[in-house]
Amino acid sequence: MTEIYTVTENYNDEYWMRRAIKLAMQAQEKGEIPVGAVLVADNEIIAEGFNHPITDHDPTAHAEIIALRRGGMQLQNYRLLNTTLYVTLEPCIMCAGAMVHSRIQRLVYGASDMKTGAAGSLIDILRHPGMNHQIDITGGVLAQECSSMLSAFFKQRREQHKALKKLKAQQQEMP
Ligand SMILES: [Zn+2]
């Protein structure tokens, strides 16, 4: 019985993660790092968000923060009890802190972030023994899709920078 339950749960996680990936693509269309987040309770979407700090001139406009803010508005409560947040990339320290404040029950993320991940990769904010609120974490859901989306984005951006540099150099060479 336990096994059947686990399979069902994983299926649901992948389902919501696919929605988060779609949101991440919206970020990418705006030239932002592709990260998307979906806040879910009782098998329903409460709120969504995608990363857009550059467009909004807002260093806090990460996908998770957007989803948590909208979730609070939607529930008319600053505590987002019994909710699960799905995000395509392991959250940073800022977002992990916001998750603790919002009291979400569970975090599900896709790709790990070795450089800035605050759900265990760099630091573990969400399960820190000194924290008064502990959050359940499931990592690595559709990790391959989530991380290849990111690496394709960064590769494209490097190529764009290179092409721009080349163009500038050519312009300087002109008499
Ligand atoms: Zn963040």
Automatic annotation (TrEMBL):
Cofactor(s) it depends on: Zn(2+)
InterPro entries: APOBEC/CMP_deaminase_Zn-bd, CMP_dCMP_dom, Cytidine_deaminase-like, tRNA_aden_deaminase
One GO term of the biological process aspect: tRNA wobble adenosine to inosine editing
Active site: 64
Residues where Zn(2+) binds: 62, 92, 95
Highest taxon, organism lineage: Bacteria
Molecular-function annotations in GO: tRNA-specific adenosine-34 deaminase activity; zinc ion binding
EC number: 3.5.4.33
Cofactor mode of binding and number, as noted: Binds 1 zinc ion per subunit.
Reaction catalysed by this enzyme: adenosine(34) in tRNA + H2O + H(+) = inosine(34) in tRNA + NH4(+)
Keywords for this protein: Hydrolase, Metal-binding, tRNA processing, Zinc
Domain spans labelled CMP/dCMP-type deaminase: 11-122
Family label: Belongs to the cytidine and deoxycytidylate deaminase family. ADAT2 subfamily.
Function: Catalyzes the deamination of adenosine to inosine at the wobble position 34 of tRNA(Arg2).
Subunit structure: Homodimer.
Name under which the protein is recorded: tRNA-specific adenosine deaminase
Species: Xenorhabdus khoisanae
